[in-house]
Amino acid sequence: VRRDILVVDSEVSPFGTHDRHDSIRCAAGPARAVLDRHPDLAGRIDLVVVGTGMAARTEGRENGLAQSLAGVLGLGGSYGIDVREFCASGNVAVQVAATAIEAARAEVVLVLGVDHLVSGDVPRPLRPEAVGVEAAYGYSPPVFYALCADRYLRETGTSVADLAAVAVRNRRHAASNPNARFREAITEADVLESPLVAPPLTRLQCCPNADGSGAVLVVAADAVDADTAKRAVRLTGMGAATNASPHTASLLSFAEDVDAGRRAYEDAGLGPSDVDVAEVHDAFTISQVIHLEDLGLRERGEGWRDLPGLVVNPSGGLLSRGHPIGATGIAQVDSIRRHLCGEWAGSSGSFRTGLVQEAGGMQVLGQILSTCLILQAPLAR
Amino acid sequence: MTPRNDAPTLAHCRTCGWRRDDGAVCARCGERFLLSGVTAGGEVVAATAIGGVAFTAVSLGDAITALAIGGEARPGQHVALTPRDDGTLALEVLA
C-alpha cells in the first residue's frame, strides 16, 4: 500500500536582489518561518533536501549545503541531501523527499530551494554546463527557445502578439504575489518593444534572474495527527523524465514533458482535464506554451491561449517572479498549495487539483529533465 | 542533398565534438553521430541570432534536428552542413 504524502506548509522569500546574503542565510528565513508554525513537527525532521542550481558556481558550495542548513536550523538528528538538477532542482528536491517518505526512510522532511543569481558571482549570460561546445559561440537557453518560438509561430500561425500576451497575463497575475520581483502591469506593446534578445524573443519574454529561497514541509500522512492531515494539501502524483534522444528535438514538443506528465497523471489517477490550476516553467513565453501542450493542458497550437477552466501561473511565473533556480520549484509548490487551500490573496478557493512542472537543462544537447507534481486540495478545506 | 545520418564515414560526434571515422557511435560519449561524411544537409526549420551570431535549426529527417552556427539561412531553405574542427556545424545555403 502506497503511503499518502502531504504538503503541510510552505514559505517563500521575496525574489529580487539580496545584497550580501548567502544561500545559508537566505534559505534559513523561509525555513524558520515554516518550522516556527509547526513546532511539533520541527523536532521530528529527519531529512533536509535542498535544491540549488548554482550554489557551487556562485558561492563555491560544491557539497554539503543541506548539511550546513540542517546545522544552522538546529535540526540535529536529521541528515541532508543536496539536489542539483539545473532549473528543475526545486521540483526534484520535493520528489526526493516524497520518495524517501514512500520508502519509509523518512516521515517529516524539510525541502528547501535557494539560489543567488543577482548578488552572486554569476557569469553572464547564464549558461548551464550542458551547453557544450556551442557555448563558445553564444549558444544558451534564449537561443534554443528562440528557435522553438520561430518554428512555432511559423507552423501554427500564432502571432508575435499572441506570444507576447503570455507575458502580459503572467505579469497581471504577479500583482497578487508580494514576493515576485516584477509586479507592475505590462502591455503587449511593452513586451514587443522591449529589447530584442534573440528573435522573435524580446527581453520581457525571457525570465529575469533573482535571488530567492523557499521552504516546503512534506510529511507522511500517517505521521501527523488527523487534524493536520485533513488541512494539508495532498501530493498524489509525481513524474520525471529525461530525453534520451537529444537530437530528436522537433522544437515544437519536448518528449520529456510528455513522459513526466504521463507518469504524474498515472500516479495520481487523474488526467489533464482534472487540473484547474497550474504552475509551469515559463522561463520564456514559448516554453510555457509548449509545456502546456505537452502536458495535455492545451491543444496543439493553442498553448498560448487563455481559456476558461484552467488558471496558468497564478503567481506570475518565472517571467514575473524571477528565477532563482533552486527556489523556483519551491515557489511553484507554494503557489499551488496556497491556491488549493484558499490562502492566496484573491484566490477563489475553488481549485481542487493543481499541477507543478519544471524543466531543467538544455534540449538538443542531451541534458534535459522535466518534472511534474500533482497536488490536490485538503480533505477539510 | 539527402541526409545520411548513419553512414559509415562519420566525421564528428554532434554531442561532444570528438572526431572519429568509423562506426555509428561516438567512442567518447556514446552518442549517435549526426552527420555522415564531411557534409550532410537538410531543411532549415527555424533561425535566430544573438550577439551577432546566427543559429539555425536544420531538420535532417527522422525528427533529427541539427544546430548550425554562423551563416545566414531562412526557414524553408536547404542547406549543407559541414563540421568544424571543434565539432560545431557550419552551414551553406544550397542553390
Strand order in the sheet with the most strands of chain B: 3-2-1-4-5
Helix content of chain A: 25-40%
Assembly of the depicted chains: heterodimer
Main β-sheet of chain B: number of strands, strand sense, barrel status?
5 strands, antiparallel
Mean pLDDT of chain A equals 93
Query: How far is it from the N-terminal to the C-terminal residue of chain A, by CA?
Result: 25 Å
How much strand content do the residues of chain B show? 35-45%
Give the tags:
heterodimer; A: 381 residues; alpha/beta; ten-stranded mixed sheet; two-stranded antiparallel sheet; 12 strands; 35% helix; B: 95 residues; mainly beta; five-stranded antiparallel sheet; 0% helix; disordered N terminus
Strands, helices and their partners?
The complex is a heterodimer of chains A (381) and B (95).
Chain A: E1 5-12, H1 23-37, H2 39-42, E2 47-51, H3 55-59, H4 65-72, E3 79-83, H5 89-102, E4 108-116, H6 141-156, H7 160-174, H8 188-193, E5 196-198, E6 201-202, E7 211-220, H9 226-231, E8 233-242, H10 255-268, E9 277-279, H11 285-294, E10 311-312, H12 317-321, H13 325-341, E11 353-362, E12 367-376
Parallel strand pairs in A: 2-3, 2-4, 9-10, 9-11
Antiparallel strand pairs in A: 1-7, 1-8, 4-7, 5-6, 8-12, 11-12
Helix pairs in contact in A: 1-4, 5-13, 7-11
Chain B: E1 40-50, E2 53-59, E3 65-69, E4 78-83, E5 89-93
Antiparallel strand pairs in B: 1-2, 1-4, 2-3, 4-5
